[in-house]
Specification:
Elements (H helix, E strand, L loop, with lengths): L9 E6 L3 H5 L5 H8 L3 E6 L13 E2 L9 E2 L1 H14 L6 E11 L2 H10 L2 E6 L7 H6 L3 E4 L9 H12 L32 E2 L2 E2 L9 H19 L11 H15 L1
Parallel strand pairs: 1-2, 1-6, 5-6, 5-7
Antiparallel strand pairs: 3-4, 8-9
The structure holds ligand 21W.
The site of ligand 21W has 16 residues, from strand 5.
Length: about 260
């Protein structure tokens, strides 16, 4: 399939001490389907396989003392180099998953999908990697939020999942990722399914009307209203249309009354 907004297949190499953990994404849901359909290719590289140490060590004590261990240069550098050489494309963006990185958001994911058919994700363990690797091997650092994880694997899986749903052909319905929350910078409208009434709580009448245009407008208004209530700071990053401003004003009036 030819894509207008990026390469036709995305290849992701993950450098990790726990490849089995990362590879589980290929067994489930949207990521599983993307890999099965060869829309996304995933390969893992274990630094331990590249360690030249007698005991296959990949970590060592930090110079200057202090708690924990640091990932050594040699095994990690060789694993990253093996990953680089594994794909026929010369250009690959090497991203180190780190609490000190730029914060992941939807625009970051879109950017990766649009300009990069090839990605190497480096997941750290212990207290992190030797600082000299950052200078020589890493193009950028990426954080998934301001909280502390025990390693980069879950973060790499978050990135892989978010990327997979942006690749055309991955989702059952081509439209559905465009309708995702954040694709227009807003939260989503509320959803309802059967039964029509439960414990006295009714489904909003308009959703039963069959009037598709009225439903679309109502949902847009709900999306705007919920964003205003729950994540008002999101409005700083988007520009509302005339109609959206009108709908949000209506929502606020109805909310106040
Ligand atoms: C957590 C590694 C804390 C290193 C002295 C100097 C990847 C992550 C991670 C981890 C430290 C992401 C130290 C959000 C995250 C990750 C493991 C601190 C110790 N001592 N996004 N440095 N949060 N975390 N280093 O934790 O690998 S993306």
């Amino acid at each position: 399939m030819q894509r207008i907004d990026g390469p036709s297949v995305m290849r992701i190499d993950v450098v990790t001490l726990f490849p089995e953990m990362v590879e589980t994404v290929s067994r489930y849901g949207v990521t599983g389907r993307a890999i099965e359909r060869d829309i996304m290719q995933l390969a893992c590289w274990n630094p331990r396989d590249y360690s030249l140490d007698t005991y296959r060590a990949v970590d060592d004590r930090p110079f200057g003392g202090g708690p924990g261990m640091v990932m050594m240069v040699q095994p990690l550098r060789d694993a990253i180099e093996a990953a680089r050489q594994a794909a026929d494309v010369a250009e690959s963006r090497v991203i180190y998953l780190s609490p000190q990185g730029r914060r992941l958001d939807h625009s970051y994911i879109r950017e990766m999908v649009e300009q990069c058919g090839r990605l190497i994700l480096v997941a750290g363990r212990y207290e992190g990697i030797d600082e000299r690797l950052l200078e020589t091997e890493i193009d950028e650092e990426l954080s998934i939020g301001d909280f502390v994880l025990s390693g980069g694997e879950l973060a790499s899986m978050v990135v892989i999942d978010a990327l997979a749903r942006q690749l055309p052909g991955t989702l059952g319905h081509e439209e559905s990722s465009r309708q995702d929350s954040f694709s227009d910078g807003l939260l989503e409208y509320g959803q309802y399914t059967r039964p029509r009434e439960i414990d006295g709580m009714e489904v909003p009448e308009i959703l039963l009307s069959g009037n598709h245009e009225a439903i679309r407008v109502w949902r847009e208004k709900q999306a705007l209203g919920r964003t205003w209530l729950k994540r008002p700071e999101l409005f700083a990053g988007i520009e509302l249309t005339e109609q959206q401003r009108h709908l949000l004003d209506e929502f606020k009036k109805e909310y106040d009354s």
